[in-house]
Amino acid sequence: MGVLEATMAAIRHYCAYQDRCHSEVRSKLLGMECYGEDLEEAISILIEEDFLNEERYAQAYARGKFRMNKWGRIRIKQQLKLKKVSDYCIRKALAQLDEVEYAHTLHELMQKKLATLSGERNEWIRKQKVYQHLLQKGYESDLVQDTWKAFDSQ
Length: 154
Fold this sequence. Notes:
By secondary structure, the chain is mostly helical. The protein folds into 3 domains: 3-52, Arc Repressor Mutant, subunit A (Orthogonal Bundle), CATH 1.10.10; 55-95; 99-152. 76% of the residues lie in helices and 0% in strands. It has helices at 3-17, 22-31, 36-48, 54-69, 73-82, 87-95, 99-116, 123-136, 141-152. The longest helix has 18 residues, at 99-116.
């Protein structure tokens, strides 16, 4: 078995274990001392054999980070850009997030954060802390404001 064949067996296993983006696979191949034409050929083979699919990766990443970590669209988009995922794949991944579930999660996060700030008497400080928390999670500021208004009117 040649060097490329041994590398391909290992990298197929790496990709089969969990969806990966192109930059992760490229880094892994470089770490396995696979360079130049061999690296490009390996990536082409992985794409052909559907071990490497950036659109599928972006969608799984967005779903996972939203459902498990409660991240908003902005943070998911930033993290996918850091992984050098294409804008097309990012847009497709974000479009699959359910609007109703997204709004419900934002409302839920707001309630939880407010519950932790029950000792804070200053309403303005409470609002700022909640707002900052939700922005750090990656939610859009206009949605946070709209949710706050709806929350206030209850």
